[in-house]
Specification:
Oligomer: single chain
Strand content: 15-25%
CATH architecture of one domain: Alpha-Beta Complex
Shape: globular
């Protein structure tokens, strides 16, 4: 028997239920597979089913619940179901964006896991014809005391910066949190935003039979095999041994691939296009075939390969990076090859589309796979997992705890705790201004990044948000709060919120308690999206985020995008000036349940933290509209939404950004509640004192509840509360504590 015949015999070997279990396919799915196929699969076919029916690719535990999301409004051009969402931003242009996870790979190999997460999300955007203009990341790490946390932070941040900086797309927004719940399973969620002309958007759908299938980009290697399957399973201690399943990225090749694809897209050569992300050549070919209702016939010997002796199984399941798959229009092969040869990228016709509805694969001149496409995609399992509603927490009673003797010390502790401390050490490693259109990055200057639409006076506002403590306390209200915070952040810079992408990070959906959090969080998010006219246009679900049976905190991340019609009419949190008056819009607050104050100052956790603040969605719309009107009219100098740490922390963040201090006033009642409560739908604004009479009239005309809460001034933060002795904190000391924690920690000093 020759080597070739031995390989073919191995690939064609009939697989059993035990073999399927080793590929992550359970007994029910095995029965379903054999029934659909009307026979047992061979090794190649089983591998293809295993990745396409994985949680990562099929959304089999969440599909029926994701359908609850509103996905349309007047601006939506393309909702979920394509590589990324598309919204109309006027003047014949579109913004294209999506968020995805690279959680498991980043825990196993933090640099490459994070880097290839950036590369993958960029491909989702430019595969639709958009030039990427912005990157965002949402990161969750374990406790700072955990022995792995410091190295994971260093590796992930270096990977994000290394890839994004080299490919030449600015990283403009993000968030970083620390919690022991992520000790064994960090979260790395990456988002990309691009711009395209509305008449030049490309889709995975649209392929017809009889056309060439065109492979472009890097050669295929053995890295990333079973990556999608690995991302659909729980971790166990020792899973660092899974390093071979982590892809290896090359940002310089990605940059060439972007330019080559956009150049070819300017011609009339492409009928359909799909990036090779999770499950590589398998998912890209199956998705294009399924969306076109066609078949595919590919000769895997023609696939560019960088390693010797690769089998069809390895070629189809490899997740090597920087690769794309296209269906070309007839006679366009030579044109396409010339474009990619110009950029020194591999480009080969590897097959043809057919009218059979089957995926046919050949190696060594022999057919080694012949399976129908439909069961791989839309006919994948769609589970109605059992779930139980999370038990409501008892109300948080602040009267059980002593009022702080020194609010300045509370403020110092909150502003220097890991979640609130400055992340300058992180974002200074990212190029935020490459391409020259970044007006403001949210990491340093505001609630949302502002990126000019090149050559215009318009801009996009972009943000990323999630408070997992709220979701853990009440997934329904917490889900509403995630969407509402993104809405506030965009409104805070003067942008009209348009749509969101999401990344739903949860534990094992086969556990009814976990599935309950998934269901209720989605329902809460869906209600908020509907009420705020803020639909979901793309996203990702990352489940099985567990290690040794312990799930991460429920973390449904939202990436929001809004439009600024005139970039001169924006606000940020840095615009306050000495003497400016401070107003809180939206009421005095007082809710301390699930708050930063309760966690960090009172040292509470779990059920004793109580429920999160509720979200009045009608009030959220009114407050957002009012703030945007104030910004448009130039009535306020700076704006910041109230979230973690309440009014006091919001004021201080504005002061630090402006190089100022502040007198913080407050009523005689509701001391800690007023200062640190996290009631929703509230904003802090800075107003020129010469406009005091005018602003009172404006607030009243808009029907806003408001409280005058102080004045900005130099050098110190002073609490001037009715019935209490003044308390003072030097801004220099506060800044050192706020900005110094992370650098000290990364040096091993904290």
């Amino acid at each position: 028997m020759t080597d070739t015949s031995a390989i073919l015999a191995h690939l064609r070997a009939t697989q059993t239920e035990d073999d399927a279990a080793g590929h992550g396919i359970n007994a029910e799915e095995w029965s379903r597979l054999v029934t659909r196929l009307e026979r047992q699969p061979n090794l190649v076919e089983l591998g293809i089913y295993s990745v396409m029916w994985s949680e990562h690719c099929s959304y089999k535990s969440s599909r029926r619940h994701l359908s609850k999301f509103p996905t349309k409004n007047a601006h939506v051009i393309q909702g979920p179901g394509e590589n990324a969402g598309v919204i109309d931003i006027g003047d014949g242009q579109a913004a294209i964006f999506k968020m995805e996870s690279h959680n498991h790979p980043s825990y196993i190999e933090p640099y490459q896991g994070a880097a290839t997460g950036v590369g993958g999300i960029l491909r989702d955007v430019f595969t639709m014809g958009a030039r990427p203009i912005a990157l965002v990341n949402a990161l969750r790490f374990g406790s700072p005391e955990h022995p792995k946390t410091r190295s994971l932070v260093a590796g992930v941040v270096s990977g994000i910066g290394g890839y994004g900086n080299c490919v030449g797309v600015p990283t403009v927004a993000g968030e970083t949190q620390f919690d022991a719940g992520y000790d064994g399973n960090i979260l790395v969620n990456a988002m990309a935003v691009g711009l395209a002309d509305q008449d030049k958007i490309f889709y995975a759908r649209g392929a017809t039979p009889g056309n060439p299938i065109f492979y472009v980009g890097s050669k295929t290697g053995r890295d990333g095999i079973h990556g999608a399957t690995m991302a659909s399973a729980e971790f166990s201690e020792g899973d660092e041994e899974k390093r071979p399943t982590v892809q290896v990225g090359d940002p310089f090749t990605e940059k060439l691939l972007i330019e080559a694809c956009l150049e070819l897209m300017a011609t009339d050569a492409i009928q359909a296009i799909q990036d090779m992300g999770a499950a590589g050549l398998t998912s890209s070919s199956v998705e294009m075939a399924d969306k076109g209702g066609i078949g595919i016939d590919m000769d895997l010997d023609k696939v560019p390969q960088r390693e010797e002796g690769m089998t069809a199984y390895e070629i189809m399941l490899s997740e090597s990076q920087e690769r794309m798959l296209m269906v070309l229009k007839p006679g366009k092969e030579d044109l396409a090859k010339k474009v990619f040869e110009k950029y020194d990228l591999d480009a080969e016709v590897i097959g043809m589309t057919t009218d059979t509805g089957h995926m046919v694969l050949r190696q060594f001149g022999e057919v080694i796979c012949d399976i129908p496409v439909a069961p791989l995609a839309e006919d994948a399992p769609n589970y109605d997992r059992p779930w139980v509603e999370p038990k409501p927490r008892a109300a948080f009673d602040v009267t059980e705890y002593d009022e702080p003797e020194d609010y300045a010390q509370v403020l110092l502790k909150l502003m220097s705790c890991p979640d609130m401390a400055s992340k300058r050490w992180i974002w200074e490693q990212y190029d935020r201004h490459v391409m020259g259109d970044t007006i403001d990055s949210s990491q340093s200057q505001g609630d949302a990044a502002i990126v000019r639409i090149h050559g215009t006076t318009k801009a996009l506002a972009i943000c990323s948000d999630c408070n997992p403590h709220y979701v853990a306390a009440d997934p329904y209200e917490g889900g509403k709060a995630v969407v509402a915070e993104a809405y506030r952040n965009l409104s805070s810079v003067g942008a009209q919120p348009i749509a969101i992408t999401d990344n739903l990070n949860f534990g094992n959906p086969e556990k009814p308690a976990t599935m309950g959090y998934i269901v209720k969080a989605i329902e809460g998010m869906a209600e908020a999206c509907g009420a705020l006219d803020f639909p979901v246009v793309s996203g990702n679900v990352s489940l099985y985020n567990e290690t040794d049976g312990k799930a991460i905190p429920p973390t449904p991340v939202v990436g929001g995008v809004g439009l600024i019609e005139e970039v001169s009419k924006v606000a940020t949190l840095k615009g306050a000036q000495d003497g400016d008056l401070i107003f809180v819009l939206g009421g005095q607050g007082g809710h301390l349940g699930a708050s930063l104050y309760a966690r960090e100052w009172l040292g509470l956790n779990g059920d004793e933290l109580g429920p999160p603040p509720s979200v009045d969605l009608e009030a959220a719309v009114h407050a957002g509209q009012s703030v945007r009107k104030l910004i448009e009219d130039g009535a306020v100098r700076a704006v910041h939404d109230v979230s973690d740490g309440g009014v006091a922390c919001a004021i201080v963040e504005m002061a630090l950004s402006a190089g100022l201090g502040a007198d913080i006033h407050g009523p005689e009642t509701a001391r800690a509640g007023f200062l640190f409560g996290e009631d929703q739908n509230r904003y802090v604004v800075a107003v020129d004192p010469s406009k005091e009479d005018t602003i009172h009239k404006a607030f009243k005309a808009l029907g806003l509840a408001y409280t005058q809460a102080g004045v900005f001034k130099p050098e110190t933060i002073d609490f001037v509360l009715v019935g209490s002795a003044p308390q003072s904190l030097p801004v220099a000391r506060l800044r050192e504590a706020h900005e110094g924690w992370l650098p000290r920690y990364m040096k091993g000093e904290g």
